[in-house]
UniProtKB/TrEMBL annotation:
InterPro entries: ComF/GntX_DNA_util-trans, PRTase-like, PRTase_dom. CDD domains: PRTases_typeI (cd06223). Residues 156-251 form the Phosphoribosyltransferase domain. Belongs to the ComF/GntX family. It holds the Pfam family Pribosyltran. PANTHER family: DNA UTILIZATION PROTEIN YHGH. This is ComF family protein. SUPFAM superfamilies: PRTase-like. It comes from the Bacteria.
Amino acid sequence: MRTATQPRLDAAWQALRQWLGATLLPAQCALCGIGCPQVLCPPCRAQYLGQGRGQLRHRCRQCANPLADIEVALLCGRCVRHRPAYDATVTAFDYAAPVDQLLLQLKFGARLALAPLLAELLHVAIQQQQTWEAPQLLCPVPLGPARLAERGFNQALEIARPLARLLDVPLQPRLALRVRDTRAQSSVAPQERQANLAHAFAIAPDHAPLLPGCHVGIVDDVMSSGHTVNALAAACKHAGAARVSILVVARTPPH
C-alpha cells in the first residue's frame, strides 16, 4: 500500500538519480563521445534522429515492421495471416547502428539519463501518427525478479515514466507481473521464442479491475520478434482489455 508520503519520496529519489547522473557521469555524447552538456549532441541528433529518419517510414500499423514505399496496404502480410494480440505499434526508429547504442548503453551500461531522451523520441513518433488513439494507462514490460535483481532497474519502466508524463497518461508499473523467469529472447533460437514466453505474464490481481474495456499502452525498449509484447498483450486481453497498443523505442527490421 502506498502511503501519503510515497509520491514525494518517489520524486525525491528520481531527482537524486538525475543529479547523480549529471554529476558523476561524464558529460559526453552517447554516440560520438564529444563533450556536451546533453546525452546526445545536436549534430548526432540531427544526423541520426532528425525529422523523417525512421519515424516517418511506411510501417505496418499493427507490428510497425517497415513496408515498401510503393505498398498501399496498412498491414504487413504476416499480420494479415496471423493477427497478434495487440492492435497497433508505434516505434521511434529502427534498431540499427549507430542509434542502437542508445538502448545498449541504457540497458547494459545503466546510463539512465538516456531514458528521458528515448521517451521524448518515442513521443515525437506518437505525435506523427495520424490515427493515434491515446491509451488509458501505460504498462511497462516487467522483468522477472532474478533479472531485476541482476540489473538493478527495468529499462522499460525508466522509459515509461517520462513517456507517461509527456502523454499525460497514468502509469501502472505493477499492472503486470512476470511470473516465470525466462531466458533472454536474444539467446533463444527464433523458432523457440514463442514457447520461451508461454505463460510468462500475469495481471496483478489488485489491478485486474482496471482492465475490462480499457485501452492499454505497453511500453518497451526494443521489439524484435514481437513475442514478448504479444504475450503481455494476450494477458491484458484475457483480463478484459479492449485494445492494446505497443509503444516501443526501436523496432528490429526483419532480416
